[in-house]
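Worked problem 6 (solution included).
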Amino acid sequence: MCLGIPMRIISIDGERARCEAGGIERDVSLFMLRPDLPSVGDFVLVHVGCAIQTVQPAEARTAWELHDAMRGGR
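Solution. The predicted structure is:
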């Protein structure tokens, strides 16, 4: 089983993106999403430093709520 975290893209440099979720920023590879790379503001599902798919904002919010619930809330 893998755990993907939805993150919002805040900047892009080629096939690398700076992404944010919950106040935490990470550099993420967009290589697996070629040839249709996402844009700044889009949400991507991130696993082991790689964006593995784009997701809708509502899907990202639902995933964050589930992650928070599993951790006992914030």
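Discussion: The first strand starts at residue 5 and ends at 13.
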